[in-house]
Amino acid sequence: MFVKKTLTLIELLVAMLIFGIVILGVFGLYNTSSIFFTSSKTKSEVLNDLTYVLDHLDKNVYLSTGWIGNSAIGVVSPSAGFFRIDLNQDTSDTPIDFSDDTTVRYEFDSSNNRIRFRDLSGSWITLTDKLVNSAGLVINYDPTDGILSVDNLCLRRDPAESYDAKTNPEICTTGQKFSTWMQSLK
């Protein structure tokens, strides 16, 4: 006698169910990893901007020169949410003569969400347009030790939109300190 082996309807339905569960699991994993990748990418963009601004500031603060009677750095805050940092730089290698120094300037303008830099030629460069309107931004300079401190400098991917950890992350600094290269007490 010859017996023919075939799949029953129940076996076929069970196989399709298992296949469907596997496909749903793979799709769910793909969807989750895609969301995580997008969130990490947006956070990295903000972190890169913040790192660029801090490195730029660090380099120029380091190059500033002055002494106790002619400070290397001036911090001005004429209105809430606006800071200006003026840095004297000795471009002609005369460390004692400050009359020939050139001033570079940073503007932290939270009403326009930007940080700008005026270089030695007088041209303005926008370093970032992600500055968050933060009343907590504090910039101080201590001329006795030549330390510029920046607290609560916050950048957000889109400052006009509200904070969201996944789609609109915000990164803030705490206790950033920058030191001048040449600060004399004379």
Structure summarized in a few sentences:
The protein has 186 residues and is an alpha+beta fold. It has one helix at 9-63; strands spanning 65-67, 73-79, 82-89, 102-109, 114-118, 124-128, 138-142, 147-151, 154-156, 170-172, 176-179, 182-184. The chain has 1 helix and 12 strands; from the N terminus they run αββββββββββββ.
Q: Would you mind describing this structure in some detail?
A:
Helix content is 30%, strand content 32%. It is built from one helix and twelve strands; from the N terminus they run αββββββββββββ. The protein is rod-shaped. The longest helix has 55 residues. By secondary structure, the protein is α+β, with helices and mostly antiparallel strands. It has a five-stranded antiparallel sheet with strand order 2-3-4-5-6, with helices on one face. The protein has one domain.
Distance between the termini: 113 Å
Largest sheet: 5 strands, antiparallel
| Strand segment tally | 12
Strand content: 25-35%
Task: Characterize the overall form.
Answer: rod-shaped
Structural class by helix and strand composition: alpha+beta
What is the succession of H and E elements?
HEEEEEEEEEEEE
Alpha plus pi helix count: 1
User: Uncertain regions: pLDDT < 50 for 5+ in a row?
Assistant: none
What Rg do the Cα atoms give?
28 Å
Query: Any idea how many domains?
Result: 1
How much helical structure, as a percent, in the residues? Answer: 25-40%
Strand order of the largest sheet: 2-3-4-5-6
Report the mean per-residue pLDDT as an integer. 82
